[in-house]
Amino acid sequence: MGIEREKRYALLLACKDSEYVKDVYGGYFNVFVATFGKVGERWDLFRVVEGQFPDMNELQNYDAFVVSGSPYDAYGNEYWILKLCFLLQTLDAMRKKVLGICFGHQVLCRSLGGKIGKAYSGWDIGLRKVKIVKDFSPCGFQEGFDEIPPVLSIIECHQDEVWEVPVGAEVIAYSNKTGVEMFTIGDHILGIQGHPEYTKDILNNLIDRLLTNGSIEKGFAEDAKSKLEIGEPDRKCWEKICKMFLKGRWN
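Structure for Gamma-glutamyl peptidase, as requested:
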């Protein structure tokens, strides 16, 4: 009986660690690994926002990649964003699994030929009920996906959105605020507009920072925080969806 190969994943971090997340969680890398990883796996961190990218010759050694959220616009032309787009095109050509979260969801769409831009209805911050498209179920794993409720709450924090998915993509979730909350391409691309990895305290701190830097107004911040107090994100369900995808049980 052969020894099972160690699973290897890469986090492409498109944001810098906030002081709060560093102090409480030790950085966003730990937040992602705690949500999506498990004992016995290897997770590597690449701070793409700072120009750190995986070696192109090493890509084949990874089982999957995760692209994080970011304060940057996914439609921007900063060098690191353009380089990230090229990397995502390469991974798509290799049919490597890629999970995009928020900015990652949007930049995946852009890289593969879709259209993204500012959300027509403005900021979405707080808990949002997301509706899974009826009858969607990854072939080969219907039993597990059937356990996922048709409506899930997720933490959102974005002012950009997907306008049009790439050719061949399938929209698998939407909300009354955002038309493309999730999309897939084949069995190797999954984009999620919300933040499965976020906890309420992380969002509360982010709201404070957005208020301080003038990105949102005081009334909007107070309303977002008050609504956050009366509900809970379905983190376990989102964790299950993401793990089903990343661990190869989506096809």
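The radius of gyration is 17 Å.
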